[in-house]
Amino acid sequence: MMEGTEGTMRCEDALRLLAAYLDGELDRNEHFDVERHLEACRTCYSRAEFHRLLHSRLAGLGRREPDAEFGARLAGLVRHFTRGAEPKPHSE
Amino acid sequence: MPGVMTEHFTDRASWFEAEAERLLPDLYGAALRLARNDADAQDLVADAVGNAWTHLASLQDRASFRGWVFRILHNCFVSRCRSLRAQATEEPYDEEGADGFSLFERLHQPFLLWWGSNPEQEFLDKLFREDLERAVDALPDSFREVVILADLQGFSYREIADVLGIPIGTVRSRLARGRSLLQRALWQHAVDAGLRSAGESDEAKGG
Fold it and tell me: What residue segments make up the domains of chain A, in order of their start?
């Protein structure tokens, strides 16, 4: 238990829940418990900030605007599909 | 071509064109990391958009269009992988010791906090976009897919489970392993680039 974290969860429990906490996947109570711990524990707070930053750098890879050539090719393809034929009827 | 299509069909086509255009940067971003080269990524996106239009009637709820198209992108990727693997086997990868690797643990120096220094942040600041791309690209397919969907595309665990057709527990475990491997690759890159010392490098290889 780090100094100043009395009354909050243990560091190892915060560490176990940290990824799900940062991903917004914890229920309200667990989320609140991790948050309280992070407010009190400098090391766990630093760890959480590090992962937030890494995550934001990775999120920057998620979108890529197509160059003009690919954009035009795809737009033409979509128009070819949508103006050429009806989608198949649902067969399930 | 109004007159040839019914009004209903024209509306649907316009809606699809607008949604496909809106999603294109996300699909292309994901496809680049899945395919790991531009030509295949473009083909993947084209396949996914074409299949999405063809099977549009199976989309239950237009609000779930994004996840639905990513599921199609995944299916296109799996099909391509199967045909490619018929020609060449996937490079083997070493998962040994990958679990639990923490880049933060390698970098964190608690005493520096009191001097306002933050080596973890400085480390990330030194990484270029292509360093991160290379680390993602180095992940084996099954881990790369969940990392792309969670960290690059912001899908929830439930949505990822639906896209990939796997249990949510598998999403959690693959994501943990994938992130661990990714951090190890970033660390190794830093060592190779001389951003971290050789002594730390030996420790990392052992850990």
Answer: 11-83
CATH number for the domain harbouring residue B14: 1.10.1740.10
Model pTM greater than 0.95?
A: no
Provide the angle, in degrees to the nearest 10, between the axes of the packed helices A28-40 and A11-22.
120
Whether A81 sits inside 8 A of B46 (CB atoms) is no
Number of domains in chain B: 2
- B80 and B120 in a single domain? The answer is no
**Cβ distance of A64 and B132 shorter than 8 Å:** no
Which domain range does residue B137 map to? 103-206
Q: Are residues B32 and B68 in the same domain?
A: yes
Which amino acid appears at position A78 of this protein? V
Tokens of B66: 């994004």
pLDDT in tens, chain B (207 residues): 444 345 477 788 899 999 999 999 999 999 999 999 999 999 999 999 999 999 999 998 999 999 999 999 999 999 987 776 655 545 555 444 446 788 888 887 766 666 667 788 888 888 899 999 999 999 999 999 999 999 999 999 999 999 999 999 999 999 999 999 999 999 988 888 877 765 564 454 444
pLDDT of residue B195: 74
Q: Which fold has domain A11-83?
A: Arc Repressor Mutant, subunit A (1.10.10)
Q: What six digits make up the tokens of B33?
A: 């990391």
The two structure tokens encoding residue B124: 């990330």
**CATH label of the domain that carries residue B138:** 1.10.10.10
A-chain CB neighbours of B53 within 8 Å are: 78, 81-82, 87
The alpha carbon of residue B51 and the mean position of all alpha carbons in its chain are separated, in whole angstroms, by 21
Whether residue B14 sits in one domain with residue B73: yes
- Cβ A89–B120 below 8 Å, yes or no? no
Global ipTM? 0.86
Nearest CA-CA distance, residue B86 and chain A, Å: 28
**Chain length of chain A:** 92
Extract the tokens encoding B163: 């896209």
> A-contacting residues of B 154-183, CB under 8 Å?
154, 156-157, 172, 175-176, 179, 183
